[in-house]
Design brief:
There is one protein chain. The chain is of the alpha+beta class. Helices cover 39% and strands 20% of the residues. It has 15 helices and 16 strands. The strands form 4 sheets. It has a 9-stranded mixed sheet. A 3-stranded antiparallel sheet has the order 5-4-15, with no helix packed on it. Strand 6 and strand 7 form a beta hairpin. The longest helix is centred in the middle third of the chain and has 20 residues. The chain starts with a strand and ends with a helix. The relative contact order is 0.09. Bound molecules: adenosine-5'-diphosphate (ADP), magnesium ion and zinc ion.
Length: 480
């Protein structure tokens, strides 16, 4: 990007709430049911039916607001957003407009360069999802209205984001909070998390906002990053060529790696918003608010801090271990079997994460139970096996599901701590390496490393390295 321009980015994120039933009726929200089976007169918008608000939707929205330091409005209003589309049988979407349930929040991000920054949250509002048009089954377009009325929250950010990286970090943080709260599965590929990016550019130092475009249809975090970069570059090129950015809505094409215009940008007055006469204002009183505050689980930032304080972990470890709730839970489950916090962290961040990556699975699908990792750590700490042996049997653990103790016994890997056994091996190694012994005696003491290596090899890695060192030294010194 040219140094004279800076990008200004604001994100609108839709998160599908994981309630069992829809926002205004009792229909199931289950994904993947046969088309048009999760429906009733209410979510189909038949004349004369009345929506009834799902209490869980309010609870989840307030929880998200609390988790992002929003002000929670004790009274908020549902409004009708009117537009025509085949997947919207009512002809309007019930959303919130002038008075959303949450406002004025923030999310903190840390960039790779170590910059710490708050991204403001303008508002979080509740709304219903629309259905789906299906274009890829024959010549006709089909409509599946199962998704009509599935609850969403829309989280709108302030235009505080400046780079694709910041957008990525903001989104990751949002997803992390949503999944810690257990109110959304956060799956962008399946559409439970959707992101529209508003992008403009301006000359550095300028405080007014430039004309923005809105890019839709990115179905992964990486695509959001790429789409934003594409759009920033496109706008800068335009302006440099003396042209102007046109306010419009664009679609991202991940295959072609480019965004193209879809339609002129609609303004809010196009939707003829008005308060929905069928729904009462949503009242959240103090008592309910307190109950919800008490229901909040430990959030990522607090959990990370606790990991640093209670387990003396480096910030780096704590960050990775708390990146998902499942990983953090797994870590704490290891700790029920060992107090060696750092070793538990190392096993998880090292061998475990790389195994997950290789197997393309998540920690929930990892075949090794956390208590077996604790057992492995204990075997090392008790001196039964060396760290290297432990590393070498890790793949066996994954493959067989057997306990480390069983594997160590079956493979006869128990560490030799019996000094007489080690002495025997040391004697034979010294005998075979007279040249090195002479070097040692001649003052080149570093050669002891080589001799230790020889003893370890002869013991097939089973000799206790500390004991080997000690015995070797004693015997060598004895020959002076
Ligand atoms: P709409 O709902 O019509 O898209 P909003 O005013 O709700 O409009 O803004 C949506 C998003 O666009 C917000 O995240 C906001 O921060 C962002 N935004 C608004 N103006 C600009 C701009 N000039 N450049 C970049 N982002 C912007
Ligand atoms: Mg928008
Ligand atoms: Zn219904």
């Amino acid at each position: 990007m040219s140094s004279n321009y800076e990008a200004v980015i604001g994100l609108e994120v839709h998160a599908q709430l994981s309630t069992d039933t829809k926002i205004f009726c009792g229909c199931s929200t289950n994904f993947g049911n046969p088309p048009n089976t999760n429906v009733c007169p209410i979510c189909l918008g038949h004349p004369g039916v009345l929506p009834v608000l799902n209490k869980k939707v309010v609870e989840y929205s307030v929880m998200m607001g609390l988790a992002t330091e929003c002000k929670i409005n004790s009274s908020s209003i549902f409004a009708r957003k009117n537009y025509f589309y085949p997947d919207l049988p009512k002809g309007y979407q019930i959303s919130q407009f002038e008075k959303p349930i949450c406002e004025f929040g923030k999310i903190n991000i840390t960039t790779a360069a170590g910059m710490n920054k708050d991204i403001g949250i303008t508002r979080i509002h509740m709304e219903e999802d629309a259905g789906k048009s299906i274009h890829d089954q024959g010549d006709d377009t089909l409509v599946d209205v199962n998704r009509c009325g599935v609850p969403l929250i829309e989280i709108v950010s302030e235009p505080d984001i400046r780079t694709p990286e910041e957008a990525y970090l903001y989104l990751s943080k949002l997803k992390q909070i949503l999944t810690y709260l257990n109110i959304c599965d956060g799956n962008m590929e399946e559409g439970s998390l959707r992101c529209d990016a508003n992008i403009s550019i301006r000359e550095a130092g300028e405080t007014k906002l430039g004309t923005r475009t809105e890019v839709k249809n990115m179905n992964s975090f990486r695509n959001v990053e790429r789409a934003i970069q594409f759009e920033i570059d496109r706008q800068i090129d335009l302006v440099k060529n003396g042209e102007q950015v046109v306010q419009q809505t664009m679609l991202w094409n991940a295959d072609l790696n480019e965004a193209y215009p879809m339609r002129g940008k609609e303004e809010s007055h196009d939707y003829r918003y008005f308060p929905d006469p069928d729904l009462m204002p949503v009242e959240v009183n103090d008592e309910w608010m307190t109950a919800l505050k008490n229901k909040l689980p430990e959030l990522p930032t607090a959990r990370k801090q606790r990991f640093i304080n209670d387990f003396s972990l480096p910030e780096y470890d704590a960050e990775i271990l708390t990146s998902t709730k499942e990983l953090a839970d797994y870590y704490e489950n290891i700790l029920t079997g060992t107090k060696n916090y750092k070793a538990a962290s190392n096993w998880l961040m090292g061998d475990t994460l790389s195994t997950l990556k290789e197997m393309k699975i998540s920690i929930e699908e990892f075949p090794i139970e956390p208590n077996l990792i604790a057992e492995l750590i204990n075997l090392i700490d008790e001196g039964t096996i060396s760290g290297n042996i432990a590393k070498s049997i890790f793949p066996d653990l994954v493959e067989t599901g057997k306990s480390p103790e069983t594997i160590v016994k079956e493979k006869n890997l128990v560490q030799i701590t019996d000094t007489s056994a080690i002495e025997g091996i040391v004697d034979s190694v010294l005998e075979k390496n007279e040249a090195q012994v002479q070097e040692y005696l001649g003052g080149k003491e570093k050669v002891i490393g080589f001799l230790v290596g020889q003893v370890m090899r002869e013991s097939k890695g089973k000799a206790n390295p500390g004991a080997v060192n000690q015995i070797l030294r004693k015997k060598l010194e004895g020959r002076r």
